[in-house]
Specification:
binds 3-(2-carboxyethyl)benzoic acid, alpha+beta, 60s Ribosomal Protein L30, Chain: A
């Protein structure tokens, strides 16, 4: 195994030693709490610069968790911004040292994502730190921006898990949505650094990573206060994205009903309605995990990330 993620409000005492594991401190609403990434053949374990990782010949899975309390903050940067910048700086060092230079997919979790300190929403603080690390590593060109998700959880450290490859993944953008790295300054001083999806090619296989997808058209949040309409808009976004990915794939076209997904619902009481709406699109038998988490804009109630692999 390369690594795992686990959803729940408690960090279990029985974590597998040496196995990089991301703890997603959020209430599970439905589905399997554990997701595992399997390598092929011999795997190797390592720890460097605070990053715990395992890799096989083609992929590296890593986790870095940084407590914000370890950062002092100053007049220009909050502790969260500093933590974000350091986490990504460390991650990029590990990628360079281990020979997996291409970042494919990232999962970012932080507490109180919509909270505000020093006059700036915490998600936007995180975006500044992340952007600065990408910039410092020379990774701001759109061909090297990974698929990602960024969600607010119940607390704990800034937690970042990632998959990286020896070869680049191909970023995919969504024609219905402005690329997030081009968002105007009204969404924060530095834009988020993620692509809408990434196509990764391993020997003989292709994996599609769909970033967290919300009810955003262009750069605007739409359907304020209506979780079902937001979910429908998300499905439209997923369809557009799969059509784009299908233009680039070596295989058959991607379809909604072949996806596995993780669904983040801000208000647990919205879960039954969101689930009913999504079941029609993904199929009632699709492997979907629902959890309660805060989406990175206060007006967004649902976010869906997905994979075909
Ligand atoms: C959006 O489309 C919704 O900051 O890494 C989705 C996926 C979102 C990833 C990130 C944010 C991120 O802007 C939020």
């Amino acid at each position: 195994m390369l690594g795992a993620s686990r959803v729940g409000l408690q960090v279990p005492a029985d974590s597998v030693p040496g196995l990089p594991t991301q703890h997603i401190l959020a209430p599970l609403l439905d589905g399997a709490p554990v997701e595992a990434w399997f390598g092929r053949g011999a795997c190797r374990t390592g720890k460097a610069h605070g990053v715990s990782f395992r890799c096989d010949g083609e992929l590296l899975f890593g986790v870095i968790e940084l407590a914000e309390a370890a950062f002092a903050g100053d007049a220009v940067a909050t502790p969260l911004q500093q933590a974000g910048q350091q986490a990504y700086g460390s991650l990029f060092r590990v990628l360079a040292e281990e020979g997996f230079p291409h970042l494919w997919r990232v999962w970012n979790y932080l507490g109180d994502i919509n909270g505000e300190t020093m006059g700036l929403e915490r998600y936007r603080q995180f975006n500044i730190g992340r952007h600065q690390a990408f910039e410092a590593a020379g990774r701001l060109d759109m061909d090297s921006i990974p698929a990602a998700s960024a969600l607010g959880v119940a607390g704990g450290p800034l937690s970042i898990a990632f998959l990286a490859g020896r070869v680049p993944a191909q970023p995919v953008e969504n024609p219905r949505q402005m690329s997030a790295y081009r968002y105007p300054a009204e969404y924060g001083p530095r834009s988020p650094t993620f692509s809408r999806a990434a196509l990764g090619r391993l020997s003989g296989e292709e994996w599609l990573f769909v970033s967290g997808t919300a009810s955003i058209v262009g750069h605007h949040s739409v359907h304020h206060g209506d979780p079902v309409a937001q979910t429908r808009e998300i499905v439209a976004n997923l369809e557009a994205l799969l059509a784009e990915a299908s233009r680039r794939t070596d295989g058959p076209a991607y379809r909604l009903d072949e996806l596995s997904a993780r669904v983040y619902v801000r208000h647990p009481e919205d879960y039954p309605a969101v689930r009913a709406e999504l079941a029609g699109a993904l199929g009632a038998a699709a492997p979907v995990v629902y959890l309660q988490a805060d989406v990175c804009r206060a007006d967004l109630l649902v976010e869906v990330e997905a994979q075909a692999c």
